[in-house]
Amino acid sequence: MTTRVQARRTARPVVRLPANKPSRISSLSRIVNSRQARTAYYVLGTAGLVALAVAIVGPKRLERDVIKPLRNAIEPQAEKLWADSRPLREQIADLFKSASPNGRERLVRSFQSWIGHFHAT
Q1: Structural element, H or E, at residue 27
Q2: Rounded distance, CA 89 to CA 83, Å?
Q3: Which residue of 2, 5, 78, 84 is 20 to 30 Å from 46, comparing CA positions?
Q4: pLDDT at res. 120
Q5: Would you report the helix, strand and coil content of the chain in percent, each value rounded to 5?
């Protein structure tokens, strides 16, 4: 019976490969499929549809049949909300007037955070 002697592999240093740069096609694909690009597509598509509607219906008819009735329905409510919010707007303006410059920056950050909270919900 013959005994086999296994030969040891020689130790080799670890090879460090440079990170592959993404190709132009993959980076372009990533940009085209990003959230910002999709938002731009929606905005451009909506603008295109509005332009098409104006071209088909005509600007005067669109204003007479759509914009004026919509304005008449919304405007009184908007005016009432604006008038009702006057004390709050004055109170916020007084806060900003009485704050020091450093305090103003903190107030701005606080209001931005508060608005962001309501925007997220």
Answers
A1: helix 24-32
A2: 10
A3: 78
A4: 67
A5: 75, 0, 25
Q: Please tell me the distance from the alpha carbon of residue 102 to that of residue 114, in angstroms, as a whole number.
A: 19
Whether the Cβ atoms of residue 101 and residue 109 lie closer than 8 Å to each other: no
d(C-alpha 109, C-alpha 107), whole Å? 5
**Looking at residue 12, what is its pLDDT?**
76
- Per-residue CA distances from 93 to 30, 36, 54 (Å): 44, 34, 41
**CA 41/CA 36 separation, integer angstroms:** 9
Residue 7's SS3 state is coil
pLDDT value of position 73: 94
The set of residues, in sequence order, having a beta carbon less than 8 Å from that of 65 and lying 6+ positions away, is 57
Which residue reads 């707007």 in tokens? Answer: 89
CA distance 33 to 4: 59
Which of the four pLDDT bands, split at 50, 70 and 90, describes residue 15?
confident
The per-residue pLDDT for range 57-113, each reduced to its tens digit, is: 999 998 999 899 999 999 999 999 999 999 999 998 898 889 888 888 888 888 888
